[in-house]
Amino acid sequence: MNGLKSGRDSDVITVTSPLLPNLDEFHALLKQVWDSKWITNNGSFHKQLEQELAAYLKVPYVSLFTNGTLPLITALQAMHISGEVITTPYSFVATTHALWWNGIKPVFVDIDPATGNIDPDRIEEAITSKTSAIMPVHVYGKPCDTKRIQEIADKYGLRVIYDAAHAFGVEVNGESILNAGDLSTLSFHATKVYNTIEGGAMVMHDEQTKKRIDYLKNFGFAGETTVVGPGINSKVDEVRAAYGLLNLRQVDAAIEARHQTAIAYREALRPVNGITFFEDMPGVKHNYSYFPVFVNAEEYGMTRDELYFKMREQNILGRRYFYPLISTFSTYRGLESSRPENLPNAHKMAESVICLPMHHELSSEDIGRVLNCIV
Ligand SMILES: *Cc1c(COP(=O)(O)O)cnc(C)c1O
User: Fold this and answer.
1) Ligand 1 within 6 A of 196 CB?
2) Helix, strand, coil % (nearest 5) of the chain?
3) Which of 28, 55, 211, 238 would disulfide-bridge 33, Cβ 3.0–4.6 Å?
């Protein structure tokens, strides 16, 4: 992944820029870690970050992971998911890879063009006797229709695991979107709204599941000599936990800065023919993790790729998230559900999208340059 350089000393505007803790404050916490010599294995900052994240996110339990892919893989393991899982092709590849690593066959269902999320109306026709779960993604942090998805899951006895990598802090009518389904997973990668450099988490509803997941991320150890299952190693060290505690204190301000950027983008782009974007959804607390725009070449007078490369020439590094679709990658394109005729909306979105630069450090001059290039 690129887009990690902030470009402060050049005229490059990157798509994202990592939220970084104050170095002096970070140093003070590192001093505590050094003094204690407890550098990993459920240390005190690790425990504190799990508690503070649960409170901030308004969820009952959080288990930290070393990235956002391992909680997906572990969630499928923990729930003994097998056979086929219904998912979306319009996501980052890790969503489908997590299924593949568990020997599960992904079954792609088309998206709803109004949201970019899996279309609940298309899920039932994809269910077979082998289906055991649904793995939707809250793409760009826009909430899935969790109620409809749960109704379908209950009707057919399926599990629901949400890839909520984009949905940090997103709420619907005051309730966290992370409480939907059986389990949700987060990514705290440097490119995300909230980061611990590399990192991630799983959100669960009850203490027993939290315990089981904590065992599984520690090789399955439930005590010095007891191994309860085939676990993995995804333990977060104290250095990253300390970094995460400091970033949690400034994430609200970062989200508000993103919000202001979204307002400026929308105001300037609303009159532009052939450029569309998502509006805020009523009752939803958004995190403004991405700002995708969709190019209608005929109306705009330029194709998506022409605009994308024009931006690049001006050192404005947008990204075509999510292009190409996961279903077109060599591992997956042979699947029956990967046929383009099965996924017309996903193909259309993938071929028209550009995510504009969106992060907490964009200046009004940066925003002006991005808009000048498009308008
Ligand atoms: C970032 C991301 C992941 C993977 O997270 P990592 O922390 O990079 O492993 C998974 N799913 C989606 C939708 C993502 O955007």
Assistant:
1) no
2) 40, 15, 45
3) 238
β-pairing verdict for 353-356 and 61-65: unpaired
In this prediction, residue 1 has a pLDDT band, given cuts at 50, 70 and 90, of: very low
Compare 336 and 6 and report the one with higher pLDDT.
Answer: 336
Nearest alpha-carbon partner for 245 in 31, 39, 56: 56
- Of 64, 90, 95, best ligand 1 pocket probe by most atoms within 8 Å of the beta carbon: 95
CB of 187 shorter than 6 A to ligand 1:
yes
- In sequence order, what DSSP letters do the residues of 167-188 get, joined into one string? -TT-EETTEEGGGSSSEEEEE-
Atom of ligand 1 nearest to the CA of 166: 15
Give me the phi and psi of 105, to 5 degrees please. Answer: -85, 120
> Is the beta carbon of 67 within 6 A of some atom in ligand 1?
yes
- Determine the topology of domain 23-248 in CATH: Aspartate Aminotransferase; domain 2 (3.40.640)
Ligand 1 centre to CA of 332 (Å) is 18
Give the residue, out of 16, 69, 177, 358, with the most ligand 1 atoms within 8 A of its beta carbon, to mutate for a pocket test. 69
Q: Distance between alpha carbon 218 and the CA centroid of its chain, in Å?
A: 24
Ligand 1 centroid to residue 187 C-alpha, Å: 5
pLDDT tens per residue, range 220-275: 999 999 999 999 999 999 999 999 999 999 999 999 999 999 999 999 999 999 99
Q: How far is the CA of 346 from the centre of ligand 1 (A)?
A: 19
The CATH code of the domain at 13-18+250-374 is: 3.90.1150.10
Instruction: Write the single-letter amino acid at 347.
Output: H
The pTM (predicted TM-score) of the whole model is 0.96
Domain ranges of the chain: 13-18+250-374, 23-248
User: Is residue 136 lining ligand 1, measured as CB closer than 6 Å?
Assistant: no
Q: Taking the mean position of all CA atoms in its chain, how far away is CA 318?
A: 18
Peptide bond into 324 cis (omega under 30): yes
Contact criterion met (CB below 8 Å) for 140 and 290: yes
**Cross-sheet strand order for the sheet of 171-172:** 175-176, 171-172, 284-285
Distance CA 14, CA 140 (A): 17
